[in-house]
């Protein structure tokens, strides 16, 4: 599709929904041999995250901080497990426009602030065989994430 050539850079992370972040961190620490690289609360999504670096990508553990959180709703419906796959992209706004023009169902038509100072947007799982896809772009310094 036009506008998408070279837009996808790599798999940034795989998001895993958990009921108890502390317990999940302990389990993943045993498996991976060390602590998470970061723990952060992302208020825009009512979630607390822990990132573990694994080779060229990351595992993101997600615990809801409110009952209205998308992660809380996911856990109620499906229980703990894989929540989403995130791809790093080079031009998030341009890619969203191209996807929308191509008729791809989006959750976010404009980027929002995500973890680690990145801009993110989600593609609806109905568009991708049931997979929730997060698109993530590193934000230049001094830029407003809601731009």
Would you write up a description of this structure?
This protein has 147 residues and is of the alpha+beta class. It has one domain (8-138): 2,3-Dihydroxybiphenyl 1,2-Dioxygenase, domain 1, CATH 3.10.180.10. 21% of the residues lie in helices and 37% in strands. The protein has an eight-stranded mixed beta sheet.
List the helices and strands and how they pair.
Blueprint: E1 8-17, H1 21-32, E2 38-42, E3 47-54, E4 57-64, H2 70-78, E5 81-89, H3 92-101, E6 112-113, E7 118-123, E8 133-138
Parallel strand pairs: 1-4, 5-8
Antiparallel strand pairs: 1-5, 2-3, 3-4, 6-7, 7-8
Summarize the structure.
This protein is 21% helix and 37% strand. The protein is built from 3 helices and 8 strands; from the N terminus they run βαβββαβαβββ. An 8-stranded mixed beta sheet has the order 2-3-4-1-5-8-7-6.
